[in-house]
Design brief:
single chain, 206 residues, mainly alpha, two-stranded antiparallel sheet, 10 helices, 2% strand
Length: 206
């Protein structure tokens, strides 16, 4: 499958990181406000993407302006397939509804930052391919290390218990495998990573 250039990949991931505003919003505003905003943006982006697929002129134009430089060059598909953006917004909505604010923040930040590190390191330095060449060991290691960094950054601000940290480490380790085997489990990693992380932290937080 043709790929965009590495510089365009960096641009895509910078846009991915720009979604960290949602992490900040989770820490500042009530969950009801966040849930409404994330749901509205999810519906809007999904409609634009579907309209682009159906060749509705206004949606094609809007889609091109928003996503033009970020698109991977995939073969023309006869089936609607959303980009990563609706999954990111769906994940933000779900963690805002399901989990306490701090757990939602950690879960979403892990996906946004660690997934970015995995993609950039894996593409640039990935030499040891895994899962039939779709992922690399270097990318997986980058994901794990950066996830640990995210967890310990929040620990420096909120002073978690040792048990909470250990559960978080187990959570992002499982999330790493969910990313590696994304194709097999048929769940976009933008959605699986924060949900797995959140479930581990919430289930074992008490």
């Amino acid at each position: 499958m043709p790929q965009i250039s590495y510089s365009q990949e960096i641009f895509r991931k910078l846009i991915h990181l720009s979604s960290l505003w949602m992490v900040a919003s989770l820490g500042v505003f009530p969950w009801e406000f966040n849930a409404f905003i994330f749901a509205f943006l999810f519906a809007s982006i999904t409609l634009i993407e579907y309209g682009n697929y159906k060749k509705w002129p206004v949606c094609v134009k809007t889609y091109g302006k928003i996503f033009g430089k970020m698109l991977r060059k995939n073969a023309e598909s006869t089936k609607f397939k959303p980009s990563g953006a609706p999954y990111v917004l769906a994940a933000a909505f779900m963690v805002s509804v399901l989990f306490p604010a701090i757990i939602a923040m950690i879960s979403l930040a892990t996906m946004l930052i660690a997934d970015t590190a995995a993609a950039l390191v894996g593409r640039k330095l990935g030499r040891h391919k895994i899962n039939n060449g779709t992922k690399s060991m270097e990318g997986a290691i980058a994901f794990w290390i950066v996830s640990a960094g995210v967890l310990f950054f929040f620990h420096s601000q909120y002073a978690f218990s040792v048990t909470f940290i250990m559960r978080g480490m187990l959570g992002f380790t499982c999330a790493m495998f969910a990313e590696i085997y994304e194709k097999q489990i048929h769940i976009d990693d933008n959605l699986s990573i924060p949900l797995i992380m959140g479930l581990f932290l919430y289930t074992f937080s008490n």
